[in-house]
Write a structure and sequence with these properties.
Chain lengths: 292, 292
């Protein structure tokens, strides 16, 4: 006990450190190792070393990978872009006092805490072409019914709609917290100078909110790039490969095809990509976040 | 009399303007409430549809003309619990979420405290990396290692893998909590004879209870909702609810009522927790984006 007290730093961080090394660092190293091998996971046949050929195949002979990368970015761009615009609108709408302010803030939390698989199921029923509520609504408005997830050109966008529904509230709440923390003096000065509501929004609110916007976009982009639950439960990457992203392709290659080496090389690329995007945002935020 | 009239004329002209302004403000406020109602409807409608469908027979679900004209039935819920062993999966989900949160707190709180007090930024960065790296990068090694150790089929791999989500999250929230905690209180305790560990347990920990509750609840929800890790690391008996529902879809894809009942069963606990502790959850989910 005395020893533990004298070395409190070690005592306090060692369990977490061992856990993170065992559960994160070792697996990443193991995945990197496997990415240089061909292996089906069999205990009888050891992994066979093939150098960088898994990576070479990924970039030169695997069109499914390139498509998955493009779809991952399209999905993220559409979803996060819409979430930012809608989230900003909702934040401005519910900013300030009104009757039922807290009730509204609580209720819009529900989509983002609800279990993604359950959300996927609920939206599958909404999107169902024959008995789904959305087509019933379209018919009632005399609009042509849609095939939603069955149509390979639009399926990815309808999946993005689910992501937008689920995560716009988070964007709104982060921006709402940002709005609440804005200083009041510039607004008083602007009012004295006779600035219009629109001018106050574009010249004051947006620039002052910019660091929060960047942080919220970063947070959402990292998670949107990694989206798995909604896509895998709703379409499994289909129809065909029309909604396959890096994450679902990696999963299918590893746990349905058991191409562990090939899958590992894909996952290492994915991992590097996510870290790269994060670092880019963090540096960007450091440069602009404090300047504005 | 005529001189008296001179005063009311400009006065009434003013009041016409004032009335107009008030009318415009009332209209704007009404528009604002209407917009808020529309926003709430959009975020809540899928839940209501899910709940409504879970009480419908297959025939009533198929009938999209009269969505509110049906006799509620509990048949779907009975099916879900009797035919698909949902109680077992419910208990698995609860055990995994509770234990992984508990262990994450036991490891994460001292680590967060040490990082805050001794400025161990490097460890903070490692924990943040765990939040950023795509979880699928670890899945192949985990699956192989846990299989070799004979642990697939127990709750151990599920608890450990969910901890890799919970622990970094808890530590991340608690670091800023402990940084804001005045160090004088702990120093006073040490002067009174407390050991460093005692100062943490009796002074810092009780004072940080709001943060512990916040991060604990969010970590519990993350684990409860987790799909990908459990999909690979659970077998027939250790399945958690999200996996059970997903399998339910693959072999009973037409039983929409049952599917929605299952979705309600998994979503309801999270929604109820959220309604009771919404303030904590907003803080937990938006943390990291609004400061730092």
């Amino acid at each position: 006990m005395n020893y533990l007290n004298r070395h409190i730093r070690t005592t306090f961080i060692l369990p977490s450190l061992i856990f993170v090394i065992a559960m994160m660092i070792v697996p990443i190293l193991y995945t990197s190792y496997l990415s240089l091998h061909v292996w089906s996971g069999s205990a009888r046949r050891a992994p066979e070393f093939v150098g960088l050929s898994n990576y070479e195949r990924l970039f030169t002979r695997d069109p499914r990978f390139g498509d998955a990368v493009a779809r991952t970015f399209i999905f993220t761009g559409v979803a996060v872009g819409a979430e930012l615009l809608l989230g900003l609108g909702i934040a401005l709408l519910i900013n300030g006092k009104f009757l039922g302010h807290n009730v509204v803030k609580t209720l819009i939390l529900l989509p983002m805490v609800a279990t993604p698989v359950a959300i996927g199921m609920a939206w599958l029923l909404l999107y169902e072409p024959n008995i789904g509520a959305l087509n019933a609504l379209l018919r009632a408005l005399s609009l042509p019914p849609q095939d939603f997830l069955g149509n390979s050109t639009t399926a990815l966008l309808w999946l993005a709609v689910v992501d937008i529904w689920q995560w716009t509230p988070l964007m709104a709440l982060i921006l709402l917290a940002g709005l609440a923390a804005l200083p009041e003096e510039p607004y008083e000065a602007a009012r004295v100078d006779g600035a219009s509501t629109w001018q106050r929004f574009t010249k004051l609110t947006l620039p002052l909110l910019f660091p929060t916007i960047i942080a919220a976009t970063l947070l959402r982009s990292i998670d949107a790039l990694k989206t798995f639950d909604i896509i895998y439960t709703m379409t499994r990457g289909g129809p065909g490969f029309a909604t396959e992203t890096i994450n679902t392709y990696g999963y299918i290659q590893a746990f349905e095809y058991f191409q562990l080496g090939q899958a590992s090389s894909l996952l290492i690329v994915f991992f590097t990509l996510i870290l790269g995007v994060s670092l880019f945002f963090i540096r960007f935020r450091r440069r602009w976040g404090t300047a504005l | 009399m005529t001189t008296n009239y001179a005063v009311p004329v400009p006065h009434s002209a003013l009041s016409v303007q004032a009335v107009q302004r008030r009318r415009r403000q009332a209209l704007l406020s009404a528009l604002r409430y209407a917009a808020i109602a529309v926003v709430l409807f959009i975020f809540l409608a899928p839940f209501l549809w899910m709940l409504l469908s879970s009480f419908k027979t297959q025939v009533d679900i198929t009938n999209t003309r009269n969505i509110l004209n049906f006799t509620p039935t509990l048949e779907n819920y009975e099916n879900v619990f009797q035919q698909y062993e949902f109680l077992r999966y419910l208990l698995n989900s609860f055990a995994v979420a509770a234990l992984s949160t508990l262990f994450s707190l036991i490891l994460g709180l001292p680590a967060a405290y040490a990082i805050a007090r001794f400025r161990l930024q490097w460890l903070g960065v490692i924990l943040l990396t765990a939040r950023i790296v795509p979880g699928i990068t670890f899945l192949i090694p985990w699956f192989i290692i846990f299989s070799r150790l004979g642990l697939i089929g127990t709750l151990v791999p599920l608890i450990l893998s969910h901890m890799l989500v919970g622990l970094p999250f808890i530590a991340w929230i608690m670091i800023s909590f402990y940084e804001e905690l005045p160090i004088e209180l702990e120093e006073a305790a040490k002067i009174d004879g407390a050991t460093p560990i005692g100062a943490f347990l009796r002074v810092a920990l009780p004072l940080s209870m709001p943060g512990v509750i916040t991060s604990g609840i969010v970590a519990f929800i993350f684990s409860w909702n987790n799909f990908m890790f459990s999909l690979v690391l659970a077998d027939d008996r250790t399945r958690t609810l999200p996996i059970a529902i997903f399998n339910f879809l693959t072999y009973a894809s037409v039983d929409w009522g049952g599917l929605m009942a299952a979705a309600v069963v998994i979503t309801l606990p999270v929604l109820i927790i959220t309604l009771f502790v919404q303030r904590y959850i907003i803080r937990g989910l938006t943390a990291g984006a609004t400061k730092g």
